[in-house]
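Private note to self, pasted from the team thread so I don't lose it. Backbone tokens:
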């Protein structure tokens, strides 16, 4: 049982002893309730996975992994929602009025979520994938499986411990929150993720990366719910300003570096380079130069620009710089994790359908994860550059251009990656789209209803998402019945194109909905005003010094 009993404090008699104690039983009860709802809805996906696996001859281990994946996604949603319901009322015991406690907690929790996702992705990439050749060449065959399991456990458990330490330190800076009670749940989450990934080693290689992204998105979901409980106009604690700026810079570097790593996989898949041993073609040389540009130059330029902006704003306006840093992370989470959460239930199926196999292809999973990760670049560029931010919140058309570009990339990659035979699309389309529509829809409705988020945003999203999903399903079904079977190659490519178009449509709809959200518009306006105010204050100081 997670214990969140808060210390008693006196705040001019505003809180009684009963109000200052909050039992962890509420968190446990809500977690169980929401988990049961989520597991019930995701059970459709589990049954579907077994049917598909049996159809394509997958092993029992694969069935067990997909079962574990569905259950873990359900538990992650339950944990995030329970945090929203229990943690905020518990903070009332610490003497904070309702309009301020959410804003104060939001800063630390949001930083924790950003650090968790970045450290998770980068550490997993360095330890999990980077050590693969090393293990294969320097480890006896009978110990390779154990070595890979240990590496994956470290790659997920270590970031969780580090993030928990950062989170606890930030909380202790304020000296009011019960950091000792809040840190263990996140350590437990990281440990559970590590055990789960270690247990799945050898079943599917790239599934671990997608699972880590889905869990990070669910963890960020807790921050998004906490965000809407607090007031953004309340100044953040000055003690966290410097730490938050550094954490934001690290997050940007990690996210862009993570995207750069996947750019290599994307380029390899697009150009389909097959090099004879000992030869280097001009195409391969150009690809390596482009990869180097993405991985080194782009992150360096972005981090340098963000650092310069932060330093300029922090000169005499620490709160403004801190707000801009936290809002940058907030926009990043909006644009990056919303599609991740939505696609977490379908990304396996999309990749499996595109590649015509019940086992997930490493390159296909990397393409999906890379496209999702690459979206993290967009919010930072729009906030770092004042003009881009003004264009984005004053005219929404550029946002749709960006979303269309993402969809085009997905379609292009889907077309050129055709390499295997795709069969039996009719049954798969019905099973995948139908069960995911029901399971994900019910889960989202329950989440919004239980959290008290409201129906307006959900209705707006449904009005855009349902027609796109329906059109995709109809298109796939027509394709399976109308295209001549003898044209196997074209049939396969068109099937992949349609699936990729559907995935691109999901990204387009998600991006469009996010951009139209009033919360995002307010954030961009706030960032532009802060940047303008920072420049104006600096100009006034320079003018005063000249006048003096």
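Design output:
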């Amino acid at each position: 049982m997670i214990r969140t009993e808060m210390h008693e404090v006196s705040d001019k008699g505003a809180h009684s002893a009963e109000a200052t104690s909050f039992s962890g039983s509420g968190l446990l009860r809500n977690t169980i309730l929401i988990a049961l709802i989520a597991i019930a809805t995701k059970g459709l996906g589990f049954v579907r996975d077994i049917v598909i696996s049996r159809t394509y001859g997958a092993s029992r281990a694969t069935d067990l992994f997909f079962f574990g994946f569905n259950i873990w996604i359900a538990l992650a949603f339950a944990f995030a929602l329970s945090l929203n319901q229990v943690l905020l009322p518990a903070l009332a015991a610490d003497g904070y009025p309702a309009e301020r406690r959410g804003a104060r907690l939001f800063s630390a929790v949001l930083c924790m979520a950003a650090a968790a996702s970045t450290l998770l992705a980068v550490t997993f990439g360095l330890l999990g994938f980077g050590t693969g050749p090393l293990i294969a060449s320097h480890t006896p065959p009978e110990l390779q499986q154990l070595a890979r399991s240990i590496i994956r456990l470290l790659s997920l458990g270590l970031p969780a411990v580090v993030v928990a330490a950062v989170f606890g330190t930030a909380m202790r800076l304020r000296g009011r929150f019960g950091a000792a009670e809040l840190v263990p749940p996140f350590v437990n989450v990281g440990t559970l993720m590590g055990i789960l990934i270690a247990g799945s080693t050898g079943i599917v290689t790239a599934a671990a990366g997608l699972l880590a992204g889905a869990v990070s998105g669910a963890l960020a979901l807790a921050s998004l719910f906490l965000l809407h409980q607090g007031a953004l106009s309340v100044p953040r604690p000055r003690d966290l300003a410097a730490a938050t700026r550094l954490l934001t810079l690290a997050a940007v570097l990690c996210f862009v570096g993570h995207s750069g790593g996947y750019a290599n996989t994307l380029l390899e898949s697009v150009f389909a380079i097959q090099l004879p041993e000992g030869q280097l073609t001009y195409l391969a040389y150009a690809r390596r130069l482009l990869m180097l540009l993405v991985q080194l130059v782009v992150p360096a330029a972005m981090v340098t620009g963000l650092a310069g902006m932060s330093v300029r704003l922090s000169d005499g306006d620490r709160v403004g710089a801190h707000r801009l840093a936290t809002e940058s992370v907030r926009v990043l989470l909006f644009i990056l994790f919303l599609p991740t959460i939505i696609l977490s239930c379908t990304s396996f199926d999309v990749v499996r359908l595109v590649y015509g196999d019940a086992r997930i292809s490493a390159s296909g999973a990397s393409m999906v994860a890379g496209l999702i990760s690459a979206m993290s670049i967009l919010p930072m560029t729009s906030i770092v550059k004042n003009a881009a931010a003004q264009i984005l919140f004053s005219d929404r058309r550029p946002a749709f251009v960006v979303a269309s570009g993402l969809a085009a990339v997905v379609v292009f990659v889907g077309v050129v990656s055709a390499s295997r035979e795709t069969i039996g699309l009719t049954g798969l389309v019905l099973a995948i789209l139908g069960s995911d529509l029901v399971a994900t829809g019910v889960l989202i409705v329950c989440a919004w209803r239980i959290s008290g988020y409201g129906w307006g945003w959900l209705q707006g999203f449904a009005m855009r998402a349902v027609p796109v999903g329906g059109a995709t399903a109809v298109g796939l079904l027509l394709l399976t019945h109308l295209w001549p079977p003898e044209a196997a190659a074209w049939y396969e490519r068109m099937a992949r194109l349609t699936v990729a178009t559907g995935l691109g449509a999901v990204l387009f709809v998600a991006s469009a909905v996010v951009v139209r959200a009033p919360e995002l518009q307010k954030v961009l306006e706030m960032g532009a005003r802060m940047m303008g105010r920072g420049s104006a204050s600096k100009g006034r100081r320079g003018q005063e010094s000249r006048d003096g």
